[in-house]
Amino acid sequence: MSIDIETERMVPLAQSPKHIPGRPNASTPYRWATVGVRGGIKLETVVVGGKRFTSIEAIGRFIERTTANSPGATAPVPRPTSRQREAAIRQAERELRAAGV
After folding, report:
1. Does residue 2 sit within a domain?
2. Phi and psi of 30, rounded to 5°?
3. Furthest-apart CA atoms within the chain: distance in Å
4. Model pLDDT, residue 12
5. pLDDT tens digits, residue range 25-66?
6. Residue 20 resides in a domain
7. What is the CA radius of gyration of the chain?
8. pTM value > 0.90
């Protein structure tokens, strides 16, 4: 996935540690973006006018991917979208009607 600059909350990479649990050193997000971790997982970034940015959402995706790639760790369970939830509700209602409930 890549950053959608129109919908995601952009932050300069230098200020990204404020948005990362544990507040890593300022150089850490740069390393994550360029070298990567755990088999090449990289923090998504964009460059605008020579300045590098990431997004709050990209930080979340990075954390999910690195967690899923950690030994013994389980990935967070993805939540269904509202559209998927509504479709599941309609399906359940059809099944109940068919069963006469």
Report:
1. no
2. -65, -40
3. 64
4. 97
5. 999 999 999 999 987 899 999 999 999 999 999 999 999 888
6. yes
7. 19
8. no
